[in-house]
Integrating conjugative element protein, PFL_4704 family
Amino acid sequence: MTRLELQNKENGEILLLDVSAAPGKTTREPVKIVYDGEVATASATDKQTVSSDGDSAGRQSSAEANAESRRPAKLNAPLPVVLTRYAAQNMYGPLRTVEPVPGVSQVSLNLPPRITTLMPSESVSVTPMAAWSLQGSSVIALQVRNRSAVKVILDPRSLQGQFTTATFQHRWLGRAGTPEDTTVLYLVTTGRPESAFIAEQRLPESEGKESKRSNRGAHK
């Protein structure tokens, strides 16, 4: 028997399924998972409705619950706190411990593989890892790794960019090569994740070509 761990992309809810297989020659159809019979639905107002097949009153209650679910969910903390907490749970904890957040969704990252404009005064590498969106705001999780031989104290006030909040998972980084040389930074911004960062500088085309010619000459 194998336990599968599935996650609802709409609210982060975790579903656990125990699956077993038996030897046989019959080709099985693809697995389809549906909710059948009575279904309990919790709305944003914490009211619970139960519907069942053939029950018109239940269907009406379900429709009302669906209408409620389209409204912005009532959060138990300020939006930046909810987003940061959700991202941290996804990055550092097992999926089964992630607290469901109605309406949250993972978003794609249209960012370079390295961000150099965020912490220009420190000898660190910054790598985008994942992002989530909720109610018009986004949280971006970035890996921060020390590339120097000295300890780095992390201060959100030294960051360069446009964002609402910035939270480091740890307060400092150990020197490069130690277990403590890496942490995660969570940035909350309005709109898309890309809006949090200063645009990366690009070399003029002529300089880029000259650099390539120089590199080719160096390897001869």
Summary: Residues 79-190 form one domain. Residues 167 and 219 are 44 Å apart (CA to CA).
